[in-house]
Amino acid sequence: MLSTIQPPRYLSRFPLRRRTKCRSLHILSSAEPLTKTSLTDQSQILSIRELLLSRQLSAVELTHSYLDRLKQTEPHIKCFLHVSDSGKVLKQAQEIDDKIKRNEEVGPLAGVPVAIKDNICTADMPSTGGSHILEGYRPPFDATSVKRLKDLGAIVVGKTNLDEFGMGSTTEASAFKVTANPWDLSRVPGGSSGGSAASVSARQCAVSLGSDTGGSVRQPASFCGVVGLKPTYGRVSRFGLMAYASSLDVIGCFGSTVADTGILLHAISGHDSLDATSSKREVPDFTTQFTSASSLKSRPLEGLRVGLIRETVDAGVDSGVKSTIQGAAAHLEQLGCILKEVSLPSFSLGLPAYYILASSESSSNLSRYDGVRYGNQASSDELNALYEESRAKGFGSEVKMRILMGTYALSAGYYDAYYKRAQQVRTIIRKSFKAALVENDILISPAAPSAAYKIGEKKNDPLAMYAGDIMTVNVNLAGLPALVLPCGFVEGGAVGLPVGLQMIGAAFDEEKLLKVGHIFEQTLQGYNFIPPLISNGAFA
Amino acid sequence: MASKLFRTIRIHPFLLCPTALFSSRNVALYCTMKSSQTQTATQEKHQPPKVKVPQHALKKTVDKITRDYEAIIGIETHVQLSTLTKAFCSCPYNYGSQPNTSICPICMGLPGALPVLNSRVIEFAVKLGLALNCKLSLNSKFDRKQYFYPDLPKGYQISQFDIPIATGGYVDLDIPLEFGGGHRKFGITRVHMEEDAGKLLHSGNGAQVDLNRAGVPLLEIVSEPDMRTGIEAAEYAAELQRVVRYLGISNGNMQEGSLRCDVNVSIRPIGQSEFGTKVEVKNLNSFSSINRAIDFEISRQAQLHSQGQGNQIVQETRLWEEGAQKTVTMRKKEGLSDYRYFPEPDLPEVILTQEYVDSVHNSLPELPEMKRRRYENMGLSMQDVLFLANDMNVAEYFDATLSSGADLKLAANWIMGDIAAYMKNEKLSINEIKLTPQELGELIASIKGGTISGKIGKEILFELLAKGGTVKGLIEEKDLVQINDPVEIGKMIDKVISENPKQLEQYRGGKTKLQGFFAGQVMKLSKGKANPGLLNKILLEKLNAKS
């Protein structure tokens, strides 16, 4: 089936190869003890490295293959707001090839094509945050995470679409375009990092960076059938990330495997002198634990205490999602985990607290977009009119609504009733998660109450859209790390829609999440999380 | 509250003709000497107001009116800190550089840029908090103060709201004698850290923004409403300037805007306990404008009150117009502005340990108030005390001179007299003169010990000031040792007397004034080296002996 993709020339070699041939909608099979053993199954980044260093493939060939697929698929999926100049990208690839030829050291991410969410600053290309107010804006600096990726040899292929400044759950709130879900082009990819999730799902890049303020990495990962990793607050520098809600924002990772997100996270983690909220904690090398599944014991997670959050499989959650998550929980039990239901009574408070805090902070963070120093300026002779018009024209309605809500919540006379109270709720939530993570090694839940829904379905019902964030916002309020990985499918679209399992860990314990997630992924049988539209070359 | 603390009676509770008063000793009030810092605000000269001073009679009636009222004055002071880099980024700040040459993504508020606190700001804030006898908050935080203005790049100012780093202190000062003298203690409500905004430059083609100053660290000092007169307010500001200069945390220059004072003035009938409506006055670029603006404002408000128009005093911001010597309405306040303060999420809390505070406390220099009390206890007059302690470098010079063994009074006189005059003429600071305190001590000792005469001492002083060198070296080089030998002096007197028989005759004829003539001639002959006391004694003997 892969040979049907013509061109690219190199796809027969990379990276869509999968050993197991199976339909997407398979039920968890316990029949054959199949394990995933090829390097590609474990990590695209590691297999790229092996192919390059063993000289089976050149970086230029590799880059061509990705660029070709990007060119074919992009008109249908619309992941990117800006695609890097192919000449520049190929030149970078050539430099890597030259280094390898000269037997020089290349970075651990050499030749790895990455996409960057457009609210993360990149020095040499536009960074709009998905907003008209920054149309054409080119930052004079790279975000710290981007700089670190470039320093390690990664190649930035473009800037991905998002809900304006990260405010939204569908990517429909982008000022520029609507991104489609590669599993069903009539559906949303989730958001706000919809472009980053869809681009990995569509194999337009190997890995991508997103940002997660209330679930903006995890929910689109779930909708697109890819792995999404939201690190602990402070693990990754926010310098260069356009602030939405500073106390909640983190830069997160997308990959097609758990190992890829772990390797990507490792590359961007660690203290940054340019971000006072970045942690000085040492970053453990969680890139070495991605052992091949064939070397695993029969019950590799023996004794691991897993708590399924009861409130996340309650009413209001799609029944298909519920049963998929229960299937995933059963799989964890098979791997040796001790499964327990835990109740977090404060869970439902997270959503209103989140929307008050995030809106409050955003109303402040977005004040800088006034049209005075950069971005689009409305022409006016009078100062207030200049502000009003620049902002009225520059911001979309979702952003305006959140600025208004936040301004209200911070106003004299309302501060105590809203902002302060939400902070108190946040403290309660943080404590309850901390306690639950003392009794459990990890907590699990769905990443979203449903699979991907139709474009336009919730566009005029913001409350329904906000309600979709219930699974993820608490984790941001508590500042914890969480990993979302595809664990099954529900009916929908032509081939079914992927469902993501969310694993929540203790602060700064990404290592455990990645280990558990990797084992779960490598032992999960019978699923193929490459969208058929991509693997069967429908756009070729 | 503060009135209880006053140790002396105020002589002029409300000075309504401050200009007249100021024209006399204005310079002496704040600072008579140039400090080591360039171009100081304290060295201000009184500029004659361009309006006519009100007629004497009118002035008297106003004076009378104001005596029925008490003024309540509080001051908000912004001190620009002299850190090498800005508060939250690594841009340097230099006053007067080309617009927008000292900016970066952080102080421009570019998307994605984050503030990182310069730890020196904390250190300076702790220093000032301690120097102002405040209680320090070991756990404080930054907040965002939100408003839109083109000079505010982020749309909010990083400041401190409900938990300032220092609270509840006071400042001690002495009012110069010419303004009634006396000690004062004024309360300090709070000291907090914040960042400065940029500047708007208005030109023909509209307004432009210069962000060089954006993000420069400030300390805002809020006083208790303890001051009652313009002089007290000006002295309070001058004391803050001395303190920040002693601490080395700011150049305190008012003209450059490194020290900015906004004053709040209200009046109430004497005996009333409620405060009147307060008016804020801005644009005060010198101590004398603080003084004059306040006194103008007091008389304006008192006149309105006395004419039954007290309700026309409204809460507003007024601007001091230096040229017209009056305050004018800048903007009326429409209720309280809502700055929507909330905790700055980009910066961690500011946590101080007691050990840190103690270590800063131990490193504080001797502060102006301590210096003044020490000098006072040494026996110097208050006028000398105020002069010497005004500038830390002068005080240090004085202290060093004393520690080289010099006589207290003589050292003070030399520094305040000839040395100060020289510095003023040559526009030098005390750190720039070539005379070391040790040599000044030597010079004083040489005169006192009779090695050289006072006159010669003065001559070589100017040589030492300009060229340096040692007293001993100069005396030797120029053969300036005083002649104390009566025989030698006698011989010179004889020579002069014999060469001037006419004058001798006149002297003996009763024109005894001619003694001066003879003394001068002898001194000339001795090249100024003859001991003048001895000379006069022997001269008198010889002139009178043969009569």
Automatic annotation (TrEMBL), chain A:
Catalytic residues (UniProt): 117 (charge relay system), 192 (charge relay system), 216 (acyl-ester intermediate)
Keyword Nucleotide-binding: yes
Keywords associated with the record: ATP-binding, Chloroplast, Ligase, Mitochondrion, Nucleotide-binding, Plastid, Protein biosynthesis
Annotated compartments: Mitochondrion; Plastid, Chloroplast stroma
One MF term in the entry's GO annotations: hydrolase activity, acting on carbon-nitrogen (but not peptide) bonds, in linear amides
Keyword Nucleotide-binding: yes
Any one Gene Ontology cellular component term annotated for this protein: chloroplast stroma
Broad enzyme group: ligase
Known catalytic reactions: L-glutamyl-tRNA(Gln) + L-glutamine + ATP + H2O = L-glutaminyl-tRNA(Gln) + L-glutamate + ADP + phosphate + H(+)
Record-stated family: Belongs to the amidase family. GatA subfamily.
Other remarks in the entry: This protein may be expected to contain an N-terminal transit peptide but none has been predicted.
Protein name: Glutamyl-tRNA(Gln) amidotransferase subunit A, chloroplastic/mitochondrial
Species whose genome carries this gene: Hibiscus trionum
Organism taxonomic ancestry: Eukaryota, Viridiplantae, Streptophyta, Embryophyta, Tracheophyta
From TrEMBL, chain B:
Enzyme category, top tier: ligase
SUPFAM superfamilies the record matches: GatB/YqeY motif, Glutamine synthetase/guanido kinase
Coiled-coil residue windows: none
GO molecular function: ATP binding; glutaminyl-tRNA synthase (glutamine-hydrolyzing) activity
One GO location term (cellular component): chloroplast
Localization in the cell: Mitochondrion; Plastid, Chloroplast
Pfam families (UniProt xref): GatB_N, GatB_Yqey
Keywords: ATP-binding, Chloroplast, Ligase, Mitochondrion, Nucleotide-binding, Plastid, Protein biosynthesis
Primary location recorded for the protein, binned into one broad class: mitochondrion
Enzyme Commission (EC) number: 6.3.5.-
Catalyzed reactions: L-glutamyl-tRNA(Gln) + L-glutamine + ATP + H2O = L-glutaminyl-tRNA(Gln) + L-glutamate + ADP + phosphate + H(+); L-aspartyl-tRNA(Asn) + L-glutamine + ATP + H2O = L-asparaginyl-tRNA(Asn) + L-glutamate + ADP + phosphate + 2 H(+)
Transmembrane segments: none
Residue span(s) of domain Asn/Gln amidotransferase: 396-543
GO biological process: glutaminyl-tRNAGln biosynthesis via transamidation; mitochondrial translation; oxoacid metabolic process
Taxonomic superkingdom: Eukaryota
Function comment: Allows the formation of correctly charged Gln-tRNA(Gln) through the transamidation of misacylated Glu-tRNA(Gln) in chloroplasts and mitochondria. The reaction takes place in the presence of glutamine and ATP through an activated gamma-phospho-Glu-tRNA(Gln).
Similarity remark: Belongs to the GatB/GatE family. GatB subfamily.
Subunit structure: Subunit of the heterotrimeric GatCAB amidotransferase (AdT) complex, composed of A, B and C subunits.
Name the UniProt record assigns to this protein: Glutamyl-tRNA(Gln) amidotransferase subunit B, chloroplastic/mitochondrial
Organism: Hibiscus trionum
